[in-house]
Write a structure and sequence with these properties.
- The structure is a single chain.
- This protein is mainly beta.
- It contains one helix and five strands; from the N terminus they run αβββββ.
- It is globular and about 35 Å long.
- 14% of the residues are buried.
- Bound molecules: copper (II) ion.
């Protein structure tokens, strides 16, 4: 209880407002989609993804990638399953795997 309250206070003082989320909350969601674009830096990928329950509806969007090595072996038009980490400091893909077929 005490530790949670302290985290809420520090989160409120130095970051974006948490609103409905606990300031310390980090959530990871798993999505499925098709790679539409990989930036030359390999730090961003655009994925046309299906619904990600609890996070967002189906759409094509641009994701930051936590580490460029995650995109090794991933190419345009690949079907992928990916984990996206959602935290107060941002949203980033932390896993990408090609789906067979
Ligand atoms: Cu989206």
């Amino acid at each position: 209880m005490v530790a949670g309250s302290l985290m809420l206070i520090s989160g409120a003082s130095c970051g974006p407002s948490a609103d409905s989320q606990d300031a310390s909350a980090v959530k990871t969601y798993t999505g499925i989609g098709v790679v539409e674009r990989i930036t030359p830096s390999r730090q961003f990928v655009q994925i046309d993804h299906e619904d990600i329950p609890g996070f967002m509806d189906a759409m094509s969007m641009h994701f930051a990638v936590m580490d460029t090595s995650l995109l090794t072996g991933i190419g345009m038009a690949d079907s992928v399953v990916f984990d996206v980490r959602v935290a107060l400091d941002g949203v980033a893909i932390v896993r990408v795997d090609r789906l067979p077929g």
